[in-house]
Specification:
It is built from five helices and 15 strands. It is α+β, with helices and mostly antiparallel strands. The strands form two sheets. Strands 1, 3, 4, 6, 7, 10, 11, 14 and 15 form a nine-stranded antiparallel beta sheet that branches. Strands 2-13-12-9-8-5 form a six-stranded antiparallel beta sheet.
Length: about 280
């Protein structure tokens, strides 16, 4: 049975006079494979990470980017303009950009839950940061007549950002907002000086909350957070449709079905930009 469509019109749902205070949290790199960020004093300084604006006020207009342009049902997914979300990322660092040098670009949102008074939208965006540039002198070769210099941009590439926008439909206000780097080991790539590293950042999050207890809301229609996450992942990666199995279960199924195994070995997570 098809879910009932509801209207979330970005031009009249949010009260233009309302605003949201967003707090930024950005913790330093806690672990790394090669510790590239400590290779030189210049790099160590660039990776001394903290939010550019620990607290920032956003008007309701800024959150319209997350709303659909037409009627949607719970579970529906729509594309977002990633470049209009980047101003939120400037709260971390002015080098934010949605145009990745490599990888799956874009941003998508999903209506996860709704009631007569509230709507909860889950979204995902891929973005990266240019932290700076540095001139590095190559080692001088024996009998070399000159030394060359290579300028290298420092790229900080989060695996993904996932977030939520919690809207009071009756009052036209954003009651809560979050945009966060998933908390798991190896959740950021850094590229600098012609090399790359996989690192762990414990927290990188934009957060605004209120006292609304969402557990007490009588949602009329809702899907699980995992279902919303999968729907968003499918927009970035077609291979997310594949029923991936651990090697032990894959061997069992291959024996039972007399079919070969297609194995992929990855260093990191497959369905994001951390590897």
């Amino acid at each position: 049975m098809a879910m009932e469509k509801i209207v979330i019109n970005p031009w009249n749902v949010l009260n233009s006079s309302s605003s949201v205070r967003v707090h930024a949290h950005w913790e330093p790199i806690a672990d790394a494979t090669f510790n590239m960020h400590n290779d030189s004093p210049q790099l160590a300084e660039m990776f001394d990470l903290s939010p550019c604006h620990p607290v920032k006020e956003y008007g309701a207009e800024a959150f319209k980017v997350f709303l659909p342009a037409s009627t949607v049902a719970v579970g529906d997914v729509w594309a977002l303009d990633a470049n209009r979300i980047v101003p939120f990322l400037y709260q971390f660092h002015p080098g934010a950009r949605a145009d990745l040098g490599n990888g799956a670009e874009g941003a998508y949102a999903c209506l996860r839950a709704r009631s007569s008074d509230y709507a909860e939208i889950t979204f995902r965006i891929h973005a990266e940061f240019t932290l700076g540039s540095d001139a590095h002198q190559a080692p001088q070769q024996e009998n070399a007549e000159e030394v060359w210099e290579q300028e290298s941009e420092v790229k900080f590439i989060p695996s993904q950002y996932v977030g939520q926008v919690f809207v009071n439909l009756k009052k036209g206000t954003v009651r809560a907002f979050s945009l966060a780097l998933p908390v798991r080991n190896s959740n950021v790539d850094i590229n600098a000086c012609g090399g790359a590293d996989m690192v762990f950042v414990p927290r990188m999050e934009l957060l605004a909350t209120d006292e609304t207890d969402r557990d007490e809301i009588a949602w009329e229609t809702v899907i699980t957070a995992e279902a919303a996450r999968r729907s968003l992942a499918l927009k970035f990666y077609r291979f997310a449709k594949i029923d991936w199995l651990p090697i032990e279960r894959a061997v069992e199924r291959a024996k039972a079905t007399h079919r070969p195994i297609h194995a992929i070995l990855v260093w990191g997570c497959l369905d994001d930009e951390s590897c």
